[in-house]
Amino acid sequence: MTETVSGVGLTLLSLERYREGHLALIRLFRARGPSERDFPTPRLELAVVPEGTVPYHFWLMGGTGGGMRELEYRQSYAIAPAPPSDASDTVIEVREILWERWRAGTRKVVSVDTGPWRFSVKR
To answer: By CB count within 10 A, which of 1, 8, 86, 93 is most buried?
Structure first.
């Protein structure tokens, strides 16, 4: 599934379901602006609907990407605990993308793309 918001395309490539949690593989694609010379790294701010009785935790498991004219990344995110098994569908939502630059051991947000990008996964 692909969702595009303000020229930024996100594709949910796969969702691995486990009893303890899920693993989502997401592809990001957007054109690089004419004045962008940095190579920022995206950090996706995720949410899951329906919300569970305990808060979900998300963390980046790995990823790669870059590009000259277009930025393309693939990143996998862990989602724990697993969303409720009795829900008819689960919605994975990317609320925003924080573009960060790492230098000298510190990170700085250089831009933000605001969503949401929503992926409905049927049981």
So the answer is: 8
pTM of the model: 0.85
Please give the span between the terminal C-alpha atoms of the chain, in angstroms, as a whole number: 15
What was the pLDDT predicted at 32? 77
Q: Mention every residue, 6+ apart, whose C-beta is less than 8 A from residue 28.
A: 8, 9, 10, 42, 44, 65, 71, 72, 73, 74, 75, 97
**Pairing between β-strand 70-80 and β-strand 57-66 as defined by DSSP bridges:** antiparallel
Q: What CATH code would you report for 2-122?
A: 2.60.40.1640
pLDDT by residue (tens digit) across 80-112?
Answer: 988 777 767 888 999 999 999 888 888 899 889
d(CA 71, CA 36): 11
Peptide bond just before 84 cis, omega within 30 deg? no
Phi-psi category of residue 68: left, alpha or beta, with phi > 0 → left and psi -120 to 50 → alpha = alpha
Query: What is the rounded radius of gyration, in angstroms, for the C-alpha atoms of the chain?
Result: 15
